[in-house]
Write a structure and sequence with these properties.
This protein is of the alpha/beta class. It has a single domain (about 5-235), classed as Class I glutamine amidotransferase (GATase) domain (Rossmann fold, 3-Layer(aba) Sandwich), CATH 3.40.50.880. The chain has eight helices and nine strands. Strands 2-1-3-4-9-8-7-5-6 form a nine-stranded mixed sheet. Helix 1 (about 15-25) links the parallel strand 1 and strand 2 (about 30-35). The radius of gyration is 16 Å and the shape is globular.
Length: about 240
């Protein structure tokens, strides 16, 4: 099987738990270190699917690699390749498909609940996951839902937490977190969490009950990632 390409935009926001899932399923992957100047491919030859990770930048920033990634996403959508986006990555998918990315009315940083939407696409992607479950967040912007997609998750403070269609899944939240990632992110983004609020947690708050929280979220991630990988794991279905 061809490898999955994972686009990393900042050093501390790598594939995280997704790498564990891919390794467990015997799926090869290549991390394309955009933050280190790696070029963005102009075609999808040699790739089984595309994954776009997060980052502190905005998709509305004037960065050369953003336009290149948007073009690659459009090409991959046309080719029906599996595409997965986390936070910034989800926003890239939205923008590539003529969506808009604007400031959310508040930042969401830390552990907070999301709620599933009641529609057939959500049922397909979320399966037996509960109506409400906790995930990790770190964002100040939000995406609109592209015309061909359906929203599948929302939260009290952000009505668009995920959308899906065909082999495409875009997440505003971060289900890729590991035990090591949470404190690393809190340190890297320390300036954003100096004034905790109902939607912004301090590092101390993020670290409370960390092991069971990460374990619970990884069960959520297992369901989402396994569904996303279906075209590769069961190509005849």
């Amino acid at each position: 099987m061809k490898p999955i390409w994972i686009f990393r935009h900042v050093a501390h926001e790598g594939p995280g738990y997704l790498a564990d899932v891919l390794n467990r399923n015997g799926i090869d992957y290549i991390v394309i270190e955009v933050d280190n100047g790696a070029p963005i491919p102009t075609d999808t030859h040699g790739s089984a699917g595309l994954v776009f990770m997060g980052g502190p930048m905005s998709v509305n920033d004037e960065l050369a690699w953003i336009d290149a990634e948007l073009a690659l996403i459009r090409l991959a959508v046309d080719q029906k390749l599996p595409i997965l986006g986390h936070c910034l990555g989800g926003q890239l998918i939205s923008k590539a498909l003529s969506g808009t990315i604007d400031a959310n009315h508040c930042k969401e940083i830390g552990w907070m609940d999301v709620e599933r939407i009641n529609n057939p696409i959500a049922q397909d992607w979320l399966g037996e996951l509960p109506q409400l479950f906790e995930v990790f967040h770190w964002h100040g912007e939000k995406f609109s839902i592209p015309e061909q997609a359906d929203c599948i998750l929302k939260s009290d403070h952000c009505d668009h937490q995920a959308f899906a269609f065909d082999n495409v899944l875009a997440l505003q939240c971060h289900v890729e977190m590991t035990l090591e990632a949470v404190p690393a992110w809190a340190d890297a983004g320390a300036a954003e969490v100096t004034q905790p609020s109902p939607t912004v947690q301090s590092k101390t708050q993020m670290m409370e009950n960390l092991a069971p929280r990460v374990k619970a979220q990884q069960r959520i991630a297992d369901a989402l990632y396994t569904r996303w990988l279906q075209p590769l794991l069961n190509p005849n279905k």
